[in-house]
Specification:
The protein has about 200 residues and is α/β, with parallel strands linked by helices. About 45% of the residues lie in helices and about 15% in strands.
Length: about 200
């Protein structure tokens, strides 16, 4: 299964990541992620690649600095967040819970490998490890997010569960491997449609 959610649909229509909108989560069975080789056959594609690299650098720097501070606060128990941040927190938590409910219904998490692509602070990958997943690969473009996710995992997981989760810093295009379930929550928005299609 692959579960993808986003706050902006390809048409540009806004949709909240809440339970009432989970119809926008797409699911597929058994998935392989391949790292995408960069090919540029002409000047136009080279410029397009440079533009995407620039955009990726901006996203990476944001989520390692100001963005990390803001989103880490939202994805925590901090009581000082504003109404908009509370709505984001609620929507994200509900989306994570919907995915976990799907997994719980099958009652076989211990037999499955998971890829949490764009894991943030571990709000999905840590609960997966708690469910005794066979293996969880959790990655994020932000080193700061990965560091926080690993720290939270070390505090919340026992030694056995911790041994079955791996945190790495990498962007979506660098992820490869074969997984039973791939989850990507609120990350695809940062990629153009053609790159999303290639990765899927």
């Amino acid at each position: 299964m692959i579960a993808f959610t986003t706050s902006i649909l390809s048409s540009g229509t806004f949709c909240s990541s809440t339970v009432s909108h989970v119809s926008h989560i797409n699911t597929f069975t058994k998935s392989t992620f391949h790292a995408i080789p960069h090919r540029s056959n002409n000047r136009a594609s080279s410029l397009s690649l440079l533009k995407m690299q620039d955009d990726k650098t901006i996203v990476e720097e944001y989520f390692n600095n100001t963005g990390f501070e803001r989103w880490n606060k939202i994805y925590s128990e901090d009581k000082t967040i504003n109404t908009v941040q509370q709505d984001i927190r609620t929507g994200h938590n509900q989306t994570v819970q919907v995915i976990l409910n799907w997994i719980d219904e099958d009652k076989n998490a211990n037999e499955l490998t998971f890829c949490d692509a764009g894991c943030g602070v571990g709000s999905l990958s840590i609960p997966l490890a708690k469910r005794q997943a066979k293996f969880v690969s959790a990655s994020d473009i932000s080193q700061a997010m990965v560091k926080e996710a690993r720290s939270r995992a070390e505090m919340e997981l026992d030694a056995n569960a911790l041994s079955k989760i791996e945190f790495t810093t990498k962007d979506l295009e660098s992820i490869d491997g074969v997984y039973d379930t791939v989850c990507c929550i609120d990350v695809m928005i940062h990629y153009p449609d053609e790159k999303i299609a290639e990765m899927i």
